[in-house]
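ok so I'm stuck.
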Amino acid sequence: MSGLAERRILLGVTGGIAAYKAAEFTRLLARAGAQVRVVMTRAAQDFVGPLTFQALSGEKVHTDLLDPDAEAAMGHIELARWADLIVIAPASADCIARLAHGHADDLLTTICLATESPVAVAPAMNQGMWAHAATAANVECLRRRGVTILGPASGDQACGETGSGRMREPAELVSDCTEVFGPRVLSGHHVLITAGPTLEALDPVRYLSNHSSGRMGYAIAASAARAGARVTLVSGPVQRPTPAGVERIDVQSAREMQSAVATHLEAADIFIATAAVADYRPAEIAERKIKKGDEDGRTLALARNPDILGEACARSPRPYCVGFAAETDTVAENAQAKRRSKGADLICANAVGAGIGFGDVDSTLELFDEHGSVRLGPADKETLARELIMAIAERVRSLTQEQRNKAT
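replied:
not stuck anymore, here's the structure
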């Protein structure tokens, strides 16, 4: 049976070309067994008619705050209490702003203020609007209040531009909703996660780094939080919003990441090292910008960076340790060798190289532990993150049970 069977989902649809995706989202939710009621803003009705959603949901579509028939029974309060989950998809920049500032001037925003149920929004807007500081502040405000932010995705937009701001695909949103109602398999656990690249300064304007986008680490942090864990995310420099319910610590260099991890490791019982930590750093950082000069080349002296995962694995007692390995060849052999050399409990390996690698939308993960390997995907990183969190939770639970058995 679907995890959405008999769940009551209130879908809010706001104005934007992505409203056409909301129709497919409604169809997929109903097919998964959910009861769906739709609330449309006036702007949304300029893109898709209420009759479409009525046909797909089998329910009356709600459009007006002051509906005489509904308000006789305080309709907005009834809808707020009816919903197990409120999802706004698409959520325009205007809708996000009004939610952040507590407006209640239409049916949808009034319901969101009146409800005690979880609220999730799927942003959909031009990439410039999504990147604007005002939108970023409004989104962060909603996150602090416990609103789940679903996306946005990145790619081609209706305006002809390309970038972040696309609404996530309907099937992905269905998976997101399923996860909201899923088992909180990491309840009571503290998960420490590293993500993104490190930046190793060469002089005041140059540095050594890599192509890590941080997307996988952030997706894992979001999934761990939704699975009930307390999550601390130590992040290298990336342009990504902080997932809901996650404590984020920003660092630049590998040594800064090492220090932040050491500070929080004792309180964690699961450590997931997804960060692409630079293996080396310049042995010396020039105080002034290095000039090109007349020489044909320059020799750069490098120093080895700390082994953050190895240090975590060497602690006693230590958390359950998960590492990542990006490999260009012989993935299985290299991943198992890394697991053994580090002393990690689990290594998650993925292939990188020509045509595949950092930042790809879809990926494959292969999990290696002392018992063998399991393949996840291919799928988008958010789906892989959910599956990985489930796999880690199962292994931690089995390990805990094994320890109990030994104690008896």
